[in-house]
Amino acid sequence: MDAKAWDERYAAHDLVWSVEPNRFVAEIIGPMTPGRALDLAAGEGRNAIWMVEQGWSVVALDYSSVAVERMRSLAADRLGHDADRLTPVVGDATVAPPGDPDSYDLALLSYLQLPADEWRSALRAAVTAVRPGGRVVVVGHAGRNLAEGWGGPSDPTVLYDPDAVIDAAQGLPVTVERSGIRERPVDTDDGQRVALDTVVVLRREG
């Protein structure tokens, strides 16, 4: 899906995603000491705005200019004077992000569903952005979700299980701190369903 298609999708709805952070993002990042974070494919900013509320300074990048403008508006409403700790940016997650290499304490890839080569480029960009000792947090729709879960993309080429994330990280200066499939309950018109998500935390080596 290109930037124009994402612009049209965001423009057609008041909010495409929830205003609350992803449950796994909150679970993993909540206990961390706040610092400087990079949110790649931030959408309307639900995770980025929440991180600012926890004390982080966040650069939040998305392909869609409509999503980034909505993020700015939501941040102004929710963050008040703290809105200056959020920097929304229109950009491509597969290329070098804003800021110097090794300058972030955390990089987040939340539901960035891309074909394998592009996704590897995004992961490499995230790892390069964080300082030694910093973390890259990956949350995404699992490949197993197609057969065993609910929702998410139906294209298997943009889904990834934890092993695929670890394979993509081969050759990068990281160690795996956490890796697994997590269940995420989803309320639907037909009752509660369960989505299967990949959750991986990588630590940048010194």
Question: What's the short version?
Answer:
By secondary structure, the chain is α/β, with parallel strands linked by helices. The protein contains 7 helices and 7 strands, in the order ααβαβαββαβααββ.
Description of the molecule:
This protein is α/β, with parallel strands linked by helices. The protein has one domain (3-204): Rossmann fold (3-Layer(aba) Sandwich). The protein contains 7 helices and 7 strands. It has a 7-stranded mixed sheet. The N and C termini lie far apart (36 Å).
Keyword list:
globular; 206 residues; alpha/beta; 7-stranded mixed sheet; Rossmann fold; 7 helices; 31% strand
CATH architecture: 3-Layer(aba) Sandwich
Main β sheet profile: 7 strands, mixed
Instruction: Give the class from helix and strand content and strand pairing.
Output: alpha/beta
Q: What best-fitting shape do the alpha-carbon axes yield?
A: globular
Produce the secondary structure layout.
Elements: H1 3-11, H2 23-29, E1 36-40, H3 46-53, E2 57-62, H4 65-79, E3 86-90, E4 104-110, H5 116-129, E5 130-141, H6 145-148, H7 162-168, E6 174-188, E7 191-204
Parallel strand pairs: 1-2, 1-4, 2-3, 4-5
Antiparallel strand pairs: 5-7, 6-7
Helix pairs in contact: 3-4
